[in-house]
Amino acid sequence: MQQATKPTITLWGALLPVVILVLLLSFNVTVYGDDALGGSNQFILLIGAAVAAIVGFRNKVTYDQMIEAIGSNLKSTTGAILILLFVGALAGTWLLSGIIPAMIYYGLQILHPSIFLPACIVICAIISIATGSSWTTSATVGIALIGIGRALEIPVGMVAGAVISGAYFGDKLSPLSDTTNLAPAMAGSDLFTHIRYMTHTTVPSIIITLIVFLILGFFQNTTGAADTDILLTSIKESFTINLGLFLVPVLVIFLIIRKTPPLAALLAGTLLGGLFALIFQPDLVVKIAGATTLSITSAYQGVMNAIIGDISVTTSNELLNDLFSSGGMKGMLGTIWLIVCAMVFGGIMDAIGGLQRLSNALLSIAQSTFQLFASTAASCVVINLTASDQYLSIVLPGKMFNKAFADKNLAPENLSRTLEDSGTVTSVLIPWNTCGAYQSGVLGVGVGEYFIYAIFNWLSPIMTLLYAYFGIKIKKIVS
Question: What distances in angstroms separate CA 204 from CA 15, 133, 215, 466, one per listed residue?
Fold first, then answer.
């Protein structure tokens, strides 16, 4: 639907579905806890969509218009859904081949608990800057770091928060990142001006994050470190471990740096993982296939089982048994289900003009420079909450606030920085947002568990508002 055809809706009409959705989701999470992502949250999103539809019908929005908007929303998530399926497949073959166990094996020897958390941030930041993708970072090195953290008995939410903080820091500053290119395009700035200007808020945020995690690391009284030798022995008993296994993740990262489409890179990583499983773990492939000898049939079945469904590798250590399991593509279906339901809610909210009305309300209160920045940041967060998509949280506020920034003689990089500080990074803090659902599904950690530890992500919008309030690094348009 074109923006000009959006119906007129009252502010209360636009707020009603959002308020009901947030209240129901809060109650549902209280009742179900981490199991809320098993289906109940998805149904609550459909209830929120139904409320939005009722508001739409009262405002003369037709059923066909709503279905068309839902279809458009779902189409926009096609790439994300396919990436999720390939990530599940990749995780399966990387477990079967011994790649993930090798990462954990060598990581246990290098990363002491006292430096593990800040090391997670630095490692993920480097990978994310190189690849331009927080999603790829979490799906590769992030999964391994979660495994190492579990082995060291560091709270998994804490580890996930460090992984996500580093991954989104790199994603924000990488010229290869889609959101880093999208924000200046919406604001009217250029890429490298945007990146340079973004360092003013991004670097202090990541420094504070590193300091906090360094302090947290010193207070980790783990028993896992004492059992490292036992864990290493158990891994070696179950897998053939050598440095050659790292060729596959190195190749995948190289392909992404070379701007290979993510789906192609993940497919290559999955197939190579299957090949390495046959080379390095043939006995394990036979076991997963439920066969007695390695043949063409058992080889195919073992690798395919790892790609599509649940597999687990039993070791002599119970902790490792929890680590060495994968749901394959099947394990990603719950996350995909959540994304589909979120897009239904976002599509109907868009069709009835709810998103536009909420954004206009925020824009109307922007009188001072600080209020303009605050309205932009709030708009990004609201759209992340309602439309469940980080790209919309950049595109819609970027379009709406572009002229307002220019009218106040503010350079476009002020807007592009605010879009990234408030839109890109907060998406992962919302369970029903595509980013929150993805990271939670890939890392196997609920958003509620890592929320408080994703320090960089919730600190970034606060930092950009502090800069705006005190007038720090607020560039004016030069005539």
Answer: 35, 21, 17, 12
pTM of the model: 0.70
Within 10 A of 293 (CB to CB), how many other CB atoms are there? 9
CA 186 remoteness from chain centre = 22
- Tokens linked to 372: 């303009």
CA distances to 280, 287, 336, 415 from 284, rounded to whole Å, are 9, 5, 30, 53
Per-residue pLDDT of the chain (479 residues; tens, 9 = 90+): 444 455 678 889 988 998 888 788 778 767 776 566 677 878 988 999 999 999 999 999 999 999 999 998 888 778 778 877 887 898 889 889 998 888 778 876 777 777 889 999 998 888 788 667 788 788 777 888 898 888 888 899 999 999 999 999 988 988 767 788 888 888 888 877 888 899 999 999 999 999 999 999 887 765 554 456 777 888 888 899 999 999 998 898 788 778 788 788 889 999 999 999 999 999 999 999 999 899 999 999 999 999 998 888 888 777 677 668 788 898 888 778 877 887 888 889 889 988 778 767 777 777 788 999 998 999 899 888 877 778 778 877 887 788 788 888 999 999 999 999 999 999 999 988 888 988 998 898 989 899 999 999 999 999 999 999 999 989 888 76
Query: What are the angstrom distances between the C-alpha of 410 and each of 239, 289, 401, 477?
Result: 58, 62, 11, 5
Alpha-carbon 178 to chain mean position: 14
Torsions phi, psi for 432 (to 5 deg): -95, 0
- The pair of structure tokens assigned to 430 is 């919302």
Domain ranges of the chain: 74-338+355-479
Helical segments of 188-316, H only: 191-218, 228-238, 247-257, 262-280, 282-289, 296-308
DSSP 312: E
In this structure, what is the dihedral angle of CA atoms 82, 386, 352, 83, given to the nearest 10 degrees? 0
